Amino acid sequence: MKKLAIIGSGDLAEQIAVLATQTGLFEVVGFINQPVEIVLTSYPIIGTDDDVLNLYESDQIDCISIGIGYAHFSLRERLYNRFVNQIPLAIIIHPTCYVDETAKVGEGCVLYPGCTVGMNSVIEDNVLLNTAVVICHDDIIQKNSYISPACNIAGEVRIGSRCMIGIGTTIIDHKSICEDVIIGAGAVVISDITISGTYVGVPAKKIK
């Protein structure tokens, strides 16, 4: 069982701790505090970002998970860039997920209960798939993105880095979404999105 530290101390970090424990593969030894968050966890705070490498090198932890959500995308990405080549980033896949044997899931990814990742799909590093996300086939989800619960992503879709796809969104097949896009809850994406911004509605349209 791997000793896991979670960077963050809010509700997302707490959820990831529960998921990691449910896999049976990780022992959560504590959280790494972040000043942008209110401490909500019942787990011990074992240090700050500057302590992570010392914790790893002294065998107190084996790997980390980044429990920072879409409200702080830039911080989430900075933490990934800081640690990706220095300490293992845990891949946490809940046992109720289906991941096809041809699919690839990158370092630092978290897959909540009931997710499906279909044939030949690629989930790049540090992506979070929340509960019951469906990734059909031949999709690419690029680094540091967040897919909210109950999203349905059809085949041969590409989603860029640092995207937040809102709860219940549907993206039809063969569509591409550029980086730094927010899709509002319940939207339906039927066209390529080539300009960063916020999109809502059916069909999804840019509002800012």
Tell me the total number of β-strands: 23
Number of domains: 2
* Gyration radius, rounded: 17 Å
Mean pLDDT: 95
CATH class of the largest domain: Mainly Beta
Oligomeric form: single chain
Helical proportion, percent range: 10-25%
Uncertain runs are none
Strand order of the largest sheet: 5-8-11-14-17-20-22-23
Organism: Bacteroides intestinalis
Keywords: Acyltransferase, Transferase
Domain Mannose-1-phosphate guanyltransferase C-terminal: 94-208
Pfam family, one: PglD_N
Summarize the structure.
Keywords: Acyltransferase, Transferase. The protein is α/β, with parallel strands linked by helices and 208 residues long.
Write structural notes for this entry.
The chain is an alpha/beta fold and 208 residues long. It folds into two domains: 2-84, 3-Layer(aba) Sandwich (Rossmann fold), CATH 3.40.50.20; 92-206, 3 Solenoid (UDP N-Acetylglucosamine Acyltransferase, domain 1). The protein contains three helices and 23 strands. The protein has helices spanning 11-23, 52-57, 73-83; strands at 2-7, 26-32, 45-47, 63-66, 92-93, 98-99, 104-105, 110-111, 116-117, 122-123, 128-129, 134-135, 140-141, 146-147, 152-153, 158-159, 164-165, 170-171, 176-177, 181-183, 188-189, 197-200, 205-206. The strands form four sheets. It has an eight-stranded mixed β-sheet, covered by helices on one side. The protein has a six-stranded parallel β-sheet with strand order 6-9-12-15-18-21, with no helix packed on it. A hairpin with a 4-residue loop joins strand 22 (197-200) and strand 23. The model has no long low-confidence stretch (mean pLDDT 95). Its EC number is 2.3.1.203. Acetyl-CoA binds at residue 167. Keywords: Acyltransferase, Transferase.
